[in-house]
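Running log. JK asked me to keep both predictions on one page so they can be read side by side. First protein, sequence followed by its tokens:
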Amino acid sequence: MLAQEIIRIKRDGHTLERAHIEHFVKGLVDGSWSEGQAAALAMAMCLKGMSRDETVTLTQAMTHSGLVMDWSGAHLNGPVLDKHSTGGVGDKVSLMLAPLVAACGGVVPMISGRGLGHTGGTLDKLGCIPGYQATPDVVTLHRALKAAGCAIIGQTTELAPADRRLYAIRDVTATVESIPLITASILSKKLAAGLQGLVMDVKVGNGAFADSLDMATSLAESLVQVANGAGLPTRAWLTDMNQVLGSTAGNTLEVLEALDFLQGKNLDARLKAVTLQLSAELLVMGGLAADETQALQKVEYALTSRQGLEQFSRMVSALGGPTDFADRPGDYLATAPVQLMIDAPRSGWVTGMATRDIGLALVELGGGRRKASDTIDTRVGFSQFVQVGQQVQAGEPLAVVHAADAAAAEHARQTLQRLIQIDDARSALAPVMVQRVTSASP
């Protein structure tokens, strides 16, 4: 079977057979497909599209291109569940969701990523914690899941290696935006993790990859259909990303906000809504609650009783971090040397944010990567963000910049003043939970 013939079939708009797709995936792993050939097929897939069956086949083939986790002999204490977000600004939901679901009886081996573009990465946030092992060996991972019920880790080289190579090719060939390829990339890693249930958080808005409702809906439906077609029960929620989620953006600051959340302090209403609803979805899917009402009650109790905080502390300890991290985070987390208030230039109502640009401003501060080899300054970021719908007076704080030096802080202050919109009249508030997707017509 020739690579160029498979490329020609898709180039001409025809459907690829299972054998074609499996040949392509095998070639990604063993190198028999060149970079140019893989890029050509990716572009053909992007331009000509893929059927749902093609996408399922690609997902399954990439899943089985490497190790597929089998938890049957691990004697875990509950159903294996996970959540994935398509990325946003200030999105620290995973840090609370994993231990809260664990406190309710689930087991969460969460494979997370690093920051990409303007969006933050969960692994970068956990990288703030001294000693935390983001890529543990299998024995350590099992020990953490036994002790804490959750382990937030990075993708190992053994999981879905075909996806790792294909994503690198897509990243430099303008083929990232293909919904079928996005779907296969996300789900191949989740299927390889041996899950029994998955909830997808598909962000929509000016700070999301999917900036329109139509695109976000198409992506969510694709993820749900393909995951279910590949044997992984999956639901999705579209959630609002037209403003920073929570009150912070930046790695250390988000870890601190997550700890406050798990202690029941400074609970941002939108952040709480997303975290509890997605957690509840997993409890129902895992048979840990009879219905949504009971699931929300269980998650709320795990939060108010601080059981979620205890599971988080156990996870950090089991993965090499300090045993008292949750009690004394200030002893372990470095803080930025310069803090500067961003003052409101006028009085009025906060009516909007250029959320993506706020994420890029964080990258400029050093809190994200311009290229893969960059080192992140985990100390920098923004805290005390105002919320859309809040009234402010001239000179009152819109946020606080945490920066490495005064010049960077002043530049960020001027930037954010332009990115937060203040008007004379209050605007209608959009719900943070936009739409649930459980199934869709092909």
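And the second, directly underneath as requested:
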Amino acid sequence: MKYEAVIGLEVHAQLLTGSKLFCGCSTKFGSDPNTQVCPVCLGMPGVLPVLNRKAVEFAVKMALAVNCRINPRSIFARKNYFYPDLPKGYQISQYSEPLAEHGHLDIDADGTKKIGITRIHMEEDAGKLLHGEGPEDENFSFVDPNRTGVPLIEIVSEPEMRSSDEAQAYLRAMRDILVYLEICSGNMEEGSFRCDANVSVRPVGAEKLGTKAELKNMNSFKFVKEAIDYEIQRQIDVVEGGGKVVQETRLFDASKGVTASMRSKEEAHDYRYFPEPDLLPLMVENELVEKLRGALPELPRQKRERFISEYGIPSYDAGVLTSSKGLADYYESVVKATNEPKVSSNWVMGEVLRLLKEDSRDVKDCPVTPQSLAGLIKSVKDGVVSGTGAKEVFEEMYRTGKSASEIIKAKGLVQISNEDELSKVIAEIIKANPENLERYKAGKTQLMGFFVGEAMKATKGKANPQVINKLLKEKLG
């Protein structure tokens, strides 16, 4: 490798407040256009913004979760630019004195790596442009200002990532924390969690940064990886071809898998930042910071490490099970009722997630409670129902809401574990297969599978496999 990539990410997260950052309008997603606006968020003459306290608390929580220093005093500023979806002609943001600085986030990518966080600042969102939504509108663009004024935090990383895999790991870790804190939905398709990537290349061993391009329009982890990989190779090709990389903003075209130039990259002075005259400096008292610090939940990385050490499950399982707070809570409830960490993990990662994914449901809406699943797991352990039969039972529990015992009884899935009853079945099978019996005794021990299969067939799959194996070993000698 002659070149290395240098990647920094700017994450924008919409905060889950009920109202906007500087007015009382709703932040609900998906409402009819132009229905969640007022003179304040539309920037009408003479109106005054009033800061949303809950948004400040949410921003402080995130800053604490990623080890930032909370500045006791921060300033709101006007960021001036002119887009059709920005009614005021400026965005209220923070610039020279942000809410929080100097944090870090640990990511897992070929080991653990610490990525520095430069700053976290608060700002309001812009509106939304809709381009050619229907056949009759293909030549028109429309402005929906509903999103204008929705509270955001922008989390700016240091340029310390060196591959698209590291960038993807950083984004996933960041999103998990936001969702665990219950301050952001993390939905990339709805735009509540989005990022811009600053990408440059330089010769391996060089200290000076190359010229960066900023990538936009990436609404999935997959597209982030594809866009960064394409841009790294594009810049290498430019340099090796004798050209110079131009500082610009580029859009990612997901259908073609390429980035294309959108505009020359603005510098800070292009936005003509100046302090917002209608808002006082934001003063965050240490008492509030410590109160919020004490209320932080167990975060994904901590929970993952605890699951591995406390429950002895593989790191892969722990990673899946802690991917959301709801899923982790569901799993822990099952484990507490069964005392079977790995078996519980297999069920949650297997049948539970499979059916939830099919129905596009969140675990909080799972029709099978942790206690009901624990009861089914106990039925398998006690030999009441086979592992295969239990999967059939679980699916019906999920679809109908009935209990495991009801379904097992109604479907005749009660497993046969009575040794006297199964001994008679095995005796008949051995008697009907004298040739295979002789071959087994002559050393063809793989025929054990044949006898087990015949026993299961004779009992229509209801025989307890463990009991069948035990009895066969005794009978076959």
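Observation for JK regarding the second prediction: The mean pLDDT is 93.
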